[in-house]
Amino acid sequence: EAPMFSSWVMQIVLSEMLGVPATIETGKADESLNFYSPGLQLTYGDKSYDYEALRAAIKHKGNCHKFQVEREENNEIYQSCAHVMPEAWNGQRKEMGIYEEDGLIEPAVGTGGIGKYSWYIPLYTAKRNP
Q: What is the spatial distance between Cα 33 and Cα 8, in angstroms, rounded to a whole number?
């Protein structure tokens, strides 16, 4: 859920501090992950890495709202549209290279953070219960 919480922080900064309207794409027309949603729900999207949502935003000159309204008016199936994918893990290196070459994403650079799945216990617990 950490990426969801990070997305909320980005949404708050964009919306409240910079005055940029921001929503969070789930890939589903009827589900929201927005911090400002009344139920503040944690809804998982259809895809972990929706590169096609980025492609849709570029194709429609960044206007995802207008894109969705037009699709709805034409009774077309919902298609996700997004400007930012804040996180991608190592398993995406091959795809990221392809999308960098296509000009869909900027070159991947690390932020210094390292993600690792592990179990951690405090030192005092390890000493008390070897």
A: 8
Query: Exposed (0-12), middle (13-18) or buried (19+): which is 33, by Cβ within 10 Å?
Result: buried
Burial of 80 (0-12, 13-18, 19+ CB in 10 A): buried
**Within 13 Å, how many C-alpha atoms sit on residue 98's CB side?**
6
* Cβ neighbours, 10 Å, residue 115: 8
Do the beta carbons of residue 70 and residue 81 sit within 8 Å? no
Average pLDDT over residues 67-86: 86
pLDDT in tens, 111-120: 666 666 677 7
User: Whole-angstrom distance between the N-terminal and C-terminal Cα of the chain?
Assistant: 31
| Main-chain phi, psi angles of 96, to 5 degrees | -60, -40
The C-alpha atoms of residue 3 and residue 114 are separated, in whole angstroms, by 14
